[in-house]
Amino acid sequence: MDDHSSKHRLVDIHTHMYPPEYVDILSSRTTIPLVRTFPSSPDPRLILLESEIPSLERALADPDAPLPGRPLTKHFTSLPAKLAFMARHGIDTSVLSLANPWLDFLPATEEAARTARRINDSFEAMCAAHPGRLFFFGTLPLTAPPPAILESVAHLAALPHCRGVVLGTGGLAGGGMDDPALLPVLRALADAGLPVFLHPHYGLPNAVFGPRSASGEYGHVLPLALGFPMETTVAVARMFLAGVFDAVPRLEMILAHSGGTLPFLAGRLESCVAHDAALVGKNHAGAGAEKGRRRRRTVWEVLREQIYLDAVIYSEVGLKAAAEASGGAERLMFGTDHPFFPPVGEGADAEGEWESVRLNAEAVNKALGDGSEQAAMVMGGNAVRVLRLYDDA
Amino acid sequence: MDDHSSKHRLVDIHTHMYPPEYVDILSSRTTIPLVRTFPSSPDPRLILLESEIPSLERALADPDAPLPGRPLTKHFTSLPAKLAFMARHGIDTSVLSLANPWLDFLPATEEAARTARRINDSFEAMCAAHPGRLFFFGTLPLTAPPPAILESVAHLAALPHCRGVVLGTGGLAGGGMDDPALLPVLRALADAGLPVFLHPHYGLPNAVFGPRSASGEYGHVLPLALGFPMETTVAVARMFLAGVFDAVPRLEMILAHSGGTLPFLAGRLESCVAHDAALVGKNHAGAGAEKGRRRRRTVWEVLREQIYLDAVIYSEVGLKAAAEASGGAERLMFGTDHPFFPPVGEGADAEGEWESVRLNAEAVNKALGDGSEQAAMVMGGNAVRVLRLYDDA
């Protein structure tokens, strides 16, 4: 790392961990998300998705049925495994985040806030033990009473290695990111200079993917490949229509998976707003309308003023669209999505190079030019600047 | 038109009509889709979407409530209005299609096939009355008994102006485009040289868009801007995973709205397939697996070998991604989506230039170069070639 100037550091902003405190919570649960052990599996199994419930039920009823979910390997839980993964892929710095579904499922009590503090302190300790190599996006106890959520924001703002928060799309009690009750939380985050890393978890209802997906014939492809990105897109479109970006103009959002589908659909979204008789004539769509005089900002303007995208899109085509939609490569930041999408199949070696990482790095270099300044910014320089990772940045 | 060579004709492949026979059917229905008249509205109202049911119910209960759906203007039903729209926008040739939801809602009887024949004959007569200016994508009676569906394919193949069929994503009785029972229909279409124009209608379940969309605060933006494209993407991804493209290698698909989100998500879809332990090791994902020896084709290969995209994406960013994903501008074809998305708001003139048309034409010219050969191909040359519109092509 010594030979890397801060501009040319390789930074991974999309990389998850489940610290031991969190695994204990999942292991004690009886509904998803949960962790279960099976006699035929060396690792416990992590079951996260609604689409995995049928295979969980089959496996509980029949010891010969295929195992549900994914193995909870050390890649999910071990800090040395994370550091080794980083070293193998030349990653100088990782901005860790708790993986989905965070603390969304906790009962609506003060206890949720104490759990969040325990987990955030655990992330802070991991980062402090590896100075300059690790930062993190904190976790909010969104089921706790609102004052406790705001206290969590203040707690995170005071932790030296916290650089934002990771949020799902559920908002408070499932009200979504366009729920007016969430605005005070978003304002507190904006005031604290903590960007929101928006990440999907709930996907789309299983019925959308049809019976052959439900029976397992298509693996988990459809919920992950299509449900996740659409969930993110819907969440941010709802924020746009509700006027959240106008109501909290200093709010900064980092969208997982290059914005879901937003770069591709921004034109259609903008056109649908401009052609909807129920919306045209309002200065702002939705909640922003009462603000009055200013003209409505377009989807494109919001993309280029308050939104950053990670570069987890697995293709040159997608990466180019993401860069162009967000006004240039200066709003894109490399990520790996580790520990998800490990190598699979015959001869797969989770301790070797990960194809999923290579695909995303290659997309950046192909789309922006191998060795170009723009590619270097996406691979790390932007994260250093946007997330203020180093004093010398 | 005389001064346009077939290569430089302006062709609109995404343009809908409801002939009078179809409006009669909608007017007689009591559930969506339906047409209703209201004392306060000069035009009947067309109510198509699940998301429009609450406003329909409010309007039926309260004469002062906002009107549901959209006005069923002459743009939806009148051939002279279509021809005037074409003339105003310099469109030489239109490939008409019945708008959603086609005949998906008809009872499962032989009668559905007779209805389809009546409507297809009506389209053929319209086209025959304006030689060289009009062609059409036919409609299949997908609720009819399978032999009657195959007879419909044969009937369409014999109509001189039919150039394919428009299909929703429901398949037979809602089984989807990946239903093995649909394969004989797809094979018959491929054998007859009739491409499938795949078009969304069902969108996503309303719950996905949240309470403020359901209450009407966001107009119809979310179902149309996001639900429609995701529906198309899911349908074609299900076909891919089921091995339909391998099972019917001569099948040609034209995807509405530039493939929904497929160009942007193709990389993620391909990566999810390649990283799914349940799929890796099969030569083909899903139903194609039994075919054995050949390696699995990637999403990218299928996009470039069996899929065409319309250019209805309303942005330069999206258009570029669509062109690149499908291997170049030769697989893209201009469309307007007329009569949907007319001008709205103060001073709007449905008899003037339509912004929605201008946005799509501008996207082609910006992305591919104003006056370039590539832009000319997308604006018409490709449709002339792919759909064999003229003998001199």
From TrEMBL, chains A, B:
CC annotations in GO: cytosol
The record's annotation in Gene3D superfamilies points to: Metal-dependent hydrolases
Q: Where is the Amidohydrolase-related domain?
A: 108-389
Q: Mind listing the GO biological process terms from this record? A: secondary metabolic process
Pfam families assigned to the protein according to its UniProt record, in alphabetical order: Amidohydro_2
Q: Taxonomically, which superkingdom?
A: Eukaryota
- Annotated keywords: Decarboxylase, Lyase
**What GO molecular function annotations does the UniProt record carry, in alphabetical order?**
carboxy-lyase activity; hydrolase activity
Family that this chain belongs to? Belongs to the metallo-dependent hydrolases superfamily.
Tell me what this protein is called. Amidohydrolase-related domain-containing protein
What organism does this protein naturally occur in?
Thermothelomyces thermophilus (strain ATCC 42464 / BCRC 31852 / DSM 1799)
High-level lineage: Eukaryota, Fungi, Dikarya, Ascomycota, Pezizomycotina
